[in-house]
């Protein structure tokens, strides 16, 4: 079964002061780190959704895997998730693991634990104690529903709350803290 990785990296990073895809972190840009985490975990392919500063990101990170530009990035993460899933619809991927660019503490081991439950009908999230978080796996059977509910900065949140989701503990191997300010 083929599982694709999907990095959402389109935002302008208003609170941060610059697009987070361009933020250096431990020798690499956050966007390179996120894509590398999904590749290291074993995703068959990785697609990065860009938006704000897309040309600068591509120039600064020429080693990125496939990229898609979300022209509606300013409307929020939901449009980037829709753009990414639309790009994956033409592939043979049975599921997609979604990772946000600003969560460098999510490890390849956490992604592997989520991947172990992949399937077209799967909905899986990482568990951090009582909290649910990234990485998130969306089985292909759910892509249309996720896309229909993804608005503003809510992404898949409403869809996941309305459906049965398997939560896989990853807090011992990952940190889901997002980088919002400098």
Structural features, described:
With 182 residues, this protein is an alpha/beta fold. The protein has one domain (3-169): Alpha-Beta Complex (Spore Coat Polysaccharide Biosynthesis Protein SpsA, Chain A). Helices cover 29% and strands 25% of the residues. The chain has helices spanning 30-41, 54-60, 77-89, 108-115, 143-149, 157-162; strands at residues 3-9, 24-25, 28-29, 45-50, 66-69, 95-100, 123-128, 131-139, 166-169. It has a seven-stranded mixed beta sheet, sandwiched between helices. A two-stranded antiparallel ribbon has the order 2-3. Helix 1 crosses helix 4 and helix 3 packs antiparallel against helix 5 (143-149). 50% of the residues are buried. The model has no long low-confidence stretch (mean pLDDT 95).
Short description:
GO terms for molecular function: nucleotidyltransferase activity. By secondary structure, the protein is an alpha/beta fold. The chain has helices at residues 30-41, 54-60, 77-89, 108-115, 143-149, 157-162; strands spanning 3-9, 24-25, 28-29, 45-50, 66-69, 95-100, 123-128, 131-139, 166-169.
């Amino acid at each position: 079964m083929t599982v694709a990785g999907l990095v959402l990296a389109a935002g302008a990073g208003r609170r941060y002061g610059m697009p987070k895809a361009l933020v250096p972190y431990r020798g690499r840009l956050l966007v390179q780190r996120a894509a590398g985490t999904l590749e290291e975990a074993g995703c068959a392919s990785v697609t990065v959704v860009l938006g704000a500063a897309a040309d600068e990101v591509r120039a600064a990170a020429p080693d990125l895997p496939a990229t898609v530009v979300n022209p509606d990035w300013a409307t929020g993460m939901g449009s980037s998730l829709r753009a990414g899933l639309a790009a994956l619809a033409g592939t043979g991927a049975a599921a997609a693991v979604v990772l946000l660019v600003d969560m460098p503490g999510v490890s390849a081991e956490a992604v592997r634990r989520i991947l172990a439950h992949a399937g077209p009908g799967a909905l899986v999230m990482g568990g951090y104690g009582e909290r649910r978080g990234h990485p998130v796996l969306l089985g292909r059977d759910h892509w249309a529903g996720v896309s229909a509910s993804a608005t503003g900065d809510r992404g898949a949140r409403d869809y996941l709350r309305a459906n049965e989701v398997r939560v896989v503990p990853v807090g011992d191997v990952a940190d889901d803290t997002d980088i919002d300010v400098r």
